[in-house]
Amino acid sequence: MSRKAVFFDADGTVCDIKKGVPDSAVRAITQLVENGHEAWLCTGRSRAFVPWYLEQIPFTGMISACGATIEKKGQRLFNREMPADVAQKSVEILRKYGLVPVMEGADYMYYDKDEYTTEVNWYRDLITEALGPKWKPIAGNESCLRINKISAKMTDGCDDQQAVRELSSWYDVIRHENNAFVGTTIEFVPKGCNKAVGIAAVCRIFDIPWEDTVVFGDSNNDLSMFEYAATKVAMGNASQKILELADHVTTDMFHYGIRNGLETLGLIRGEHV
C-alpha cells in the first residue's frame, strides 16, 4: 500500500471540548504514524486554540483556522492574517447587528468576557481555561487584533444575514447545522481560505499525490476537504451534507470511530477491546 496522508478534523471527529480525545483515537493515530503514514490535524480552530489534548497526538503537522495556518513539526510554514483595520471593522459590524465577536489568531484569541458569556455559549469557560495566557480581551486591543478568522456567536434577535452581507467582501462564510457545539456559530474565514486549500498546499509542498489523501470529518466546515480529497470518511455523528459526500461512514469518536475507520481502510490493524 502507498503511503497515505490522512487529515483529521478536530471537534466532533477526534476530540470533544468537554471530554477531550478518546484513548482509542490516540492509539489509532499513533499506530497510523508508526505504520509509515502521515497524520495531519485539519481543524477550524485557530492555532492558539489547539489544546494540550490535541498536542499529545503525534501528528505529522497541523492545518488550523480552516487553512489559514500551516505548520509541520512545530515550524510555522504559512499564516494568513486579516489586516488589522479589517479586523477592527469586523468587530464593529458584528456588534452592530447583535452578534458576539470571537476573534481567532495563531497566537491569541480575543473576546470580551462580559460580552461572550456562558449564556451565549455554555462552554465559554472551557475555552478560557484551555487558552490560558493565549486569551486577550478585544477591549484595549481593537486596533491591533492579529486574527486568521472569526467565530461569530448568534444571539436572540440578531440580524446575522445583514452582518454576513456587510462582511462578505472580506470573508467566506461557513454556517453549521445545529448542534450543541457549533450550531449558533457563524465562521468567517479569509476569502479563498478553507480546509481544502490548506490540504492542497500541504500536498504541493511535500509532494503528496492527490490519490493518497484521506479525510475524516463531521461538520460543514469539513465540506471543502470532503469535496477535494480522494477518500472521505464521515463520522457517525456527521452532518447530512458530509454524509452525502462520504465514501465510508464510521462510528462516532466515543465508539471507536477513528480506529474503525482506519481499520476499514486497511491503514491499521484491528485492536480487540
Q: What are the segments in which pLDDT stays under 50 over at least 5 consecutive residues?
A: none
Major sheet: arrangement of strands: 5-4-3-2-1-12-13-14
* CATH class term of the largest domain: Alpha Beta
How many E-type strands?
A: 14
Count of spatially separate domains: 2
Q: How many helical elements?
A: 9
Rg of Cα set: 18 Å
The overall pLDDT average reads 94
The CATH topology name of the largest domain reads Rossmann fold
Beta strand % = 15-25%
Helical percent range? 25-40%
Termini separation comes to 26 Å
Class by alpha and beta content: alpha/beta
CATH level-two architecture of the largest domain:
3-Layer(aba) Sandwich
Helices and strands, in order, run as: EHEHEEEHEEHEEHEEHEHEHEH
Assigned CATH superfamily of the largest domain: HAD superfamily/HAD-like
Major β-sheet, in short?
8 strands, mixed
- Report the oligomer: single chain
* Shape designation: globular
List the helices and strands and how they pair.
Blueprint: E1 5-8, H1 23-34, E2 38-42, H2 52-55, E3 61-64, E4 69-72, E5 75-79, H3 84-96, E6 100-104, E7 109-110, H4 124-131, E8 135-136, E9 149-153, H5 160-167, E10 171-175, E11 185-190, H6 195-205, E12 213-217, H7 223-228, E13 231-234, H8 240-245, E14 248-249, H9 257-264
Parallel strand pairs: 1-2, 1-12, 2-3, 7-8, 12-13, 13-14
Antiparallel strand pairs: 3-4, 4-5, 6-7, 6-9, 9-11, 10-11
Helix pairs in contact: 1-9, 3-5
Summarize the structure.
The protein is 28% helix and 21% strand.
Structure characterization notes:
With 273 residues, the chain is an alpha/beta fold. The protein folds into two domains: 147 residues, HAD superfamily/HAD-like (Rossmann fold, 3-Layer(aba) Sandwich); 107 residues, Hypothetical Protein, Haloacid Dehalogenase-like Hydrolase, Chain: A, domain 2 (2-Layer Sandwich). β12, α7 and β13 form a beta-alpha-beta unit. The longest helix is centred in the N-terminal third of the chain and has 13 residues. It is globular.
